[in-house]
Amino acid sequence: MSALEEVTRAGSAARAAHPGLAAAAAGALADALDGMARGLRDRSDAVLTANGLDVAAADGVLAPALVDRLRLDPERLERMSGQIAALAALGDVEELVGSRELAGGLVMRERRRPVGVIGANYEARPNVTVDVASQLIKSRNAGVLRTGAAALRSAIALRDEVIAPAMERAGLDPDAIQLVRSPDRAAARALVGLPHLIPLVILRGSGETTSALAREAAANGVRTLAHAEGGGVLYIDVAADRDRALALAERSLDRLGVCNRLNLLLVARALWDDLLPDVLALLERLGIRASLPPHAHPLGHEWALDDGNEATVTVAPVAGPLEAARAANDETSGLAAAIATEDPDAAGLFLAAYTGTGAFWNATTRLLDGFELLGAPETGINVDHVPGPRGPVTFRDLHLRQYVVGPR
After folding, report:
1. Gyration radius from the chain CA atoms
2. Are 201 and 120 in contact (CB under 8 A)?
3. For residue 294, is the peptide bond before it cis, meaning its omega torsion is within 30 degrees of 0?
């Protein structure tokens, strides 16, 4: 079976199963999610065995930061389980948004409707399989999931051992959540080429690969929610508390393969000579290289996507809050930027000037995460400068508006 045939088969099966999911009682959705949370604990041996095979195959082939993203362990499974249980406890999305009386005794009712079938193509991060599946179930959307070859064993175990059994026990058709089993990269292109079957695709992954899929999707008439680039920024202001600022930098570097980690560290020029030795000492202690001026790369180069160089942070001086915000706006993807300062006026200038998705004052950019900010796992983080879902995308965003007009 070709990749196109497999994706078409999966999309058709998901579409056929969608009406049952769309009409399911809220209690059934909660039961399915609670079942997934239990399954992550009860079937952990099967999941960890499959993941161990993926990790063993990736060791020495993928960069250490990418292997870290791929790896599951009991602690990570427990955290995933807790997030799914918390999602189950959240209220269902209200179908009716509002209403307005029209002339002639008519009423307009605005309501939310599921998209139908949503595709998802994502990098070698097994937790995303569960995150996306849970968001689709909660939003009453069917889905076709496709991950890279490096995480395929893990994804299969999660779908077959955790997701499908939980849906079946809750009375939902497990065919509503499909997983493409082929490692062929052509499956990713097929996923963005079936607008009448899979009209919306969530894209997560490395910048150029994801950008190319987004372009192909647009040419095929498929809409996308793309999460291609990241890179957190921290500006240390002249009025910063030194210990707080260095602690923020350290907390922003707990994992190097994630999009919201510290990527660009900006220091007020008046502090540069005095603070730089402390910054370099911190980075050295953490095993991270500092890229210092003059830089042989763009200021916002995202190190998390640079295989073999993930353990790098760009460090540069700036005049003050406005120049820091300008650099974050113009030189980075606009994912997240933070200011460390004890001066409310400086913070106000920075936060007003920064136009990106997440803005933080004396807080780490690692907080730009669906569960941390919104209490729900995310399908990805959207940084587009257009109306619609922006920032962490959760089940609340996976709906279409519909206007229904009829008698009062």
Report:
1. 22
2. yes
3. yes
DSSP secondary structure code for residue 152 in this structure: H
Q: What pLDDT score does 230 carry?
A: 87
- Confirm or reject CATH 3.40.309.10 for domain 232-370, answering yes or no: yes
Neighbours of 40 (CB within 10 A): 28
Alpha helices by DSSP H, listed for 192-333, are: 207-220, 242-251, 272-285, 321-331
Which residues sit opposite 118 in a β-bridge? 143, 200
CA 71, CA 58: separation in Å to the nearest integer? Answer: 10
Among the residues of 90-206, which ranges form H helices?
126-138, 152-157, 164-169, 186-191
Q: What is the DSSP letter of 287?
A: T
Upper half-sphere CA count for residue 381 (Cβ side, 13 Å): 27
Whole-angstrom distance, CA of residue 98 vs CA of residue 73? 45
- What is the value of pTM for the model shown? 0.84
- Report the sign of the C-alpha dihedral through residues 318, 319, 324, 327, in that order: negative
Q: Would residue 104 be called left, alpha or beta, if left means φ above 0 and alpha means ψ between -120 and 50 degrees?
A: left
CATH 3.40.50.300 fits 3-229+386-407, yes or no: no
Q: Is 323 exposed, middle or buried (0-12, 13-18, 19+ CB in 10 A)?
A: middle
Domain range list for the chain: 3-229+386-407, 232-370
Q: Which residues contact 55 (CB under 8 A, 6 or more apart)?
A: 67, 70, 71
197, 189, 142: which is closest to 167 by C-alpha? Answer: 142
CA separation for the pair 391, 388 (Å, rounded): 10
pLDDT tens-digit series, residues 76-102? 999 999 999 999 999 988 889 999 999
Decide if 159 contacts 168 (C-beta within 8 A). Answer: no
> Do 166 and 35 meet the contact criterion of CB atoms below 8 Å apart?
yes
